[in-house]
Amino acid sequence: MQTFDYLTRQTARLLALIAGISLLLMMLQTVADVIMSRIFQHPIEGNLEIVSAYHMVLVVFLPLAVVELRHEHINADLFVRVLPAAVQRAIYVFGCLVSLIFFGALFWQTGQDAIEAWRIDEVLMSSVYVLIWPAKFTLPIGFFAIMLAIVLHIVKAITDPDFDPTPPDPTTDLETDQAP
Q: Cα–Cα distance between 124 and 178 in angstroms, integer?
């Protein structure tokens, strides 16, 4: 179990790091495009397509597992909080199972779509051709990673009596935060 926990957290960290690098590259590319447009009157060809087809997709879908591991997804638990702890835990596990099915379906379908895009060598046509099939693999990777995080939470919710699915207090020191 510890190996699965470690691998899941390391995978989530790696994907979040890639998303962070992509965010940085997106900012640099956008600034370069503005400079090229304003100063040299020659914008970067296909900038919008590259930013939207690659950078934005990486930034949105790769960090899903980190957000799940930190319990920072939107959660409405107003009425659940007044229930006994055992019932709260059962509802949490049920919600995780529903999420696992949902993300499993997304993983399957986006994986099929990515394979088909790769098979036909899918491109986005604008002022330049942008090869987009590589970016389509980002979705199933992100969905698979969040599925790993959900499975980890299900196992912990069932086996660890100290498991608490509430997000950390944002006012705490980030140095002591038990982030994934």
A: 41
Pure H helices in the chain: 2-40, 47-50, 56-61, 64-69, 85-120, 133-136, 138-159
What is d(CA 56, CA 23) in angstroms, rounded to the nearest whole number? 8
For 146-174, b where at least 16 C-beta lie within 10 A, e where not — what string? bbbbbebbbbebeeeeeeebeeeeeeeee
Confidence (pTM):
0.88
Distance CA 148, CA 113 (A): 21
Within a 10 A sphere around the Cβ of 26, how many other Cβ atoms? 18
Q: What gap in Å lies between CA 89 and CA 91, rounded to an integer?
A: 5
Interval 114-153: pLDDT, tens: 999 999 999 988 888 989 999 999 999 999 999 999 999 9
How many Cα atoms occupy the beta-carbon half-sphere of 138 within 13 Å?
Answer: 22
